[in-house]
Amino acid sequence: MKKILNPCFLAGIIAVFSLTACRDDKMEETTPDQVQTANAKPEQPNPSEKSCSYVDSNWSWSAVLINTLPTTTDTNFMNSQMVNIAKMWGKSTPTLLFVNDPVSPGSTYNAASYKTGYRIYYGYAIYNDAKAKGGDIVNAMILAHEYGHQLQYAYNLPTVKENTGRSIDLEADGFAGYYLRRPNGYNKTDFSQIAAAYEFAQSIGDYQTTNPGHHGTPAQRRSAVRLGFLIGQYDVTAKDFDTTFFAYYNGVLDGSLKMVDNTIRPEIKAYLDQYVDELKKIQSGEISAEEFKNLK
Prior knowledge:
- By secondary structure, the chain is an alpha+beta fold.
- It folds into 2 domains: 16-135, no CATH class; 158-293, no CATH class.
- 44% of the residues lie in helices and 6% in strands.
- The protein has helices at residues 47-52, 72-88, 124-134, 136-155, 166-181, 195-203, 218-231, 238-247, 249-254, 266-273, 276-284, 289-293, and strands at 64-66, 95-100, 111-114, 119-123.
- A 4-stranded mixed beta sheet has the order 1-2-4-3.
- The two termini are 26 Å apart.
- Residues 2-29 and 34-52 have low confidence and may be disordered.
- GO terms for molecular function: metallopeptidase activity.
């Protein structure tokens, strides 16, 4: 995920007792899911800083890696969601850790999925802001998005490659929409029930379409969540999801469709074909925000 925004200086807490071992991972081992504040490149630590608290180059020098969120309820919710997301996809549970920055709390407005080590790091600032804007479902959506990147690592997805991160992150948005609908996922069968989640996805879209870090425009991001939600009517593998998602991907982007893949299950194709015009209207803005909320 990516958004350039004013820092959200939310209160942080120091939890030295729960620090994990310091790491010095390389940026290229993560997905460029930077929902970070305006300073693009954090300062690098000096040796003493690295030895006590440095997380890695995706986070500021003063960030610390911990096992918990500020409340037990929040921690338990996120850990249970992590277990459930992985279980739904038939995988073991990855390591989920949290990042706090008592010096600059807004710097943790980020979530990162790591190719090395099967792990996800989740910032305090993005957690708090997402919960404030839409409740638990928004953080469930973000976490499912991050786990979508783990599926991409595992299965060499997405099959559609682009010059920016757009196809990677829009597919991850689709994975998140899928999770929110599945009975063994978040189990929200009515699209209006996930309004807070897709509104948050839209809010972190960007228009930097030639930037390598481009993750999709606001309209494309909410369209991708909608498409994933529609696919969630059916039980599919990660690879089948990829095939289906990209058969309709151009509809998410610009209202045109690429209906050329005959490997989609006929019943899924027949179901999704009913929503072709809707996907076009979502992307073009013909469907208002209020109408979008009331889609079924």
